[in-house]
Amino acid sequence: MSEVVGGIFTSHVPGIGGAIAKGLQSDPYWKPFFDGFEPVHAFLRREKPDVAVVFYNDHGLNFFLDKMPTFAVGAAPEYRHEDEGWGIAFDRPMPGYPELSWHIIESIVNDEFDPVTCQTMTVDHAVAVPFELAWPEGDFPVKLVPIAINTVQHPLPSPKRCFELGKAVGRALESWAADEKIVIFGTGGLSHQLEGGRAGHINTDYDKFCLRNLAPDPEALLQHDTLDIVELAGSQGVEILNWIAARGALRGSVHELASNYHVPISNTAAATVLLENRAVVHA
Amino acid sequence: MTMLAFAQSDATGKRVIPGTPVFDGASAQAGYALNAMCFSFNTQANRDAFVADEDGYMDRFHLTETQKRAVRERDVPAMIAAGGNVYYLAKLAGIFGLNVQDLGALQTGMALDDFKAALMGHAVTERRVNAQELAL
With contact defined as beta carbons under 8 Å apart, do B75 and B92 qualify? Predict the structure, then answer.
């Protein structure tokens, strides 16, 4: 039987990729963020997951405005990070898992979600940076299923819809018969805004509200609609939708193992959270 | 927690968040050509072609005159007003040697050091680790 062992939630700023490319992990500006990954490394050494299911948003590498899916599931045999405009492309390929991708697609469509399915797909820093952070060396030891959520072009899916998507993916994973360990990623956030007169907006109160409730009471995050979140957390703070979906995929007794909140990285309030997903208790 | 400001609406009833352009269908239509050009900058050869002949490259992507003027003048707020989306504009900014902190300073009218200082004004690091369970 498969087992969803936990969730890794982290920011995915391009600047983090730049810091990795330049080897700045111990630089005083970057160290407090990178130190947040020590517990993640310990967890991954202990659990040795076989699969990573990653909820993220594309920033104009794989998808453009000509065809913008609200939800898209990767079903490719392999994924690559490519140049996004600033000349950095991490070269380690990320192995795919088409069989599991199609199992998830079958299952969530049966649950009345309607994703775009992608047999070829590139992944941008929103997947590549968390993978580089989680597994800094060697070949990636997991097979990847990427699930993209539109956080670019409004109207965006509601927080409730994203949470329900995550739960549907969680049910799909629980019904996956292979004897494999699965880790969930939610990437992006926390509060930040890049454009407009409010560029540089950061709301530590909202971020701490999210961090405090993520494990014990994720439904608290559903009380704000998408534009409320834009107002509270900034235009790009709405990437918390990826975290909300990822949290939905953890359906057991969820327990926080580590949380690292560090402001600022680039223009962003950054965070890394590690949640353990203990067995679902049936009444 | 910081409460929401009183929700504001424009004349058509659409919600307005001060200082925060919401990239919706209207913006996506208006900004299509500009964003399509920026999307092309994922490729180094296209970045080089733009640098070699900016006007010719903008013609290829059918930018509006307003969009062309905003690009020529490196006017980020005007690019946003013309439908530019910052996720795509970031690729153009990179060609100009600007990062997102430079963009933030340009759009808020602050000096770069002041913009960075404003971000540092929120500086905080809070860490919780269950070292025992993780055997750290």
Answer: no
